[in-house]
Amino acid sequence: MAYLVKSTLTSPPEQHTLDGIQSAYREKRMTSNAMVREEQQDFWYSLGELMGETSAKEFQFCCPTCREMTNAREIDVGLQVPCQNCQTMILAPDIQPVTDPEPDRPLLRRGNLLLIVGAVILCSQFIEGRFRLIVSGVGICMMINGYGKRSLFYQKHPTAI
User: Fold this and answer.
1) What are 51-62's pLDDT values in tens digits?
2) Which of 27, 97, 116, 146 is the most buried (most CB within 10 A)?
């Protein structure tokens, strides 16, 4: 695993291995105030947290293999951690709750609108001949698209009303 390390907030990040970071930390070439992150992560934390000198906040989540609760540190989010029960390596999930579903409300409104317009087009009786079949197909496609947009909204925000 490769880590990015910044000695100060404004310094450019340098790439290091975990072994290299640990030896530099022991030799006092890096301080516990340095900022570090694994390449796959999108947040920075202190080197002291990585080394265990400073306590990192812990959380629990359900192991998908054995279905038992297991612990992880917040700095492990997005990384593989061992389950304390079955020892399977699992990805530590980001358990931060969705706080505001408002930015996706337009997605829900578009889904509702497409459902309504598609249903109106599908049920319209004033169109005759072969053209009616095409319009009915468009109505069905709009309804399916609208339902998909609504489903996507509720997948992203399961607690939304």
Assistant:
1) 888 887 888 888
2) 146
